[in-house]
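Structure ticket #2291
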Amino acid sequence: MPQGHCTLPADDAGRILDRLAGLEQIIPPAEIQQALTATGRVNSRCCRLTHEVVLWVVLAMGLLTDLPIRQVFKHARRLRRGEESPHRSSLCVARQRLGVAPVRHLFTQVTRPLARPETPGAFYHGLRLMGVDGTVYDVPDSEANAAVFARPSAGPRGDGAFPQVRKLSLVELGTHVEVALVVRSSAHGEQSMIGGLFRHLTSEMLLLWDRGFFSYELWQQMIAREVKVLARVKSRLILRPIRHLAAGSYLAKIYKNSYNREKDRDGIVVRVMIILYHERWEEKMSHPDYPSSYSLYRGSRAA
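Resolution: structure written out below.
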């Protein structure tokens, strides 16, 4: 049964309300109800801060990141005349009561690639362009957060002021939509986290990743999933040509270790593109000889 449906209308005066109204175009109210029901968040009694209202406010906080939660509530409920805004502490308690489970469930149900074939920069030869992006965030300095998340080292001055989390996201490049993410302590490196994104990759995608993710083991996993990869690598990586191709590219093999390279054992054939270090990925997308198979590109210098 609907829990006081939270409508987020827009008026002509505020772009903020336009942004909030757009939430219902992407996230249907029925999906909100389904997420709450699936995670057991059903209000046992009538109250103003229902789980549904609070979930909409939490979603709005993702758009209005520079505003405190009470101001977000005011914007989200602006056209409900005569309604008083709850105290900040009430909103925080309601948010804790909601918990993370409905948000996580909603993310998995709603988030998906949005690009269409006509979306600029979203496809290459029919392959959906995907990337991996890593970010580190400070989290509140609480005992619980400190126990789970690492503090950054400040050298001789000791640990940093706040615990930090690291987020690694699978991003649709044409729309910048994060279709999947992994969150860990900042003590975890990005390469150790990327495996959590693999199940969201398909053979219809072309994954672009930076040199920090390159490894023989990860390459094997991409091949097993039939995912096509374009990876940047360090110039010191040994890539001996085994066959020269057009436009200066060539085929080479990558190996698990130097012994296997010496014995030519279990090598994976890749196509190597020689391009300038400073050139952007987007500029290369227009090249007619751009590969649609497992490929590497090397910078003109190590960085």
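Closing remark: Residues 68 and 295 are 46 Å apart (CA to CA).
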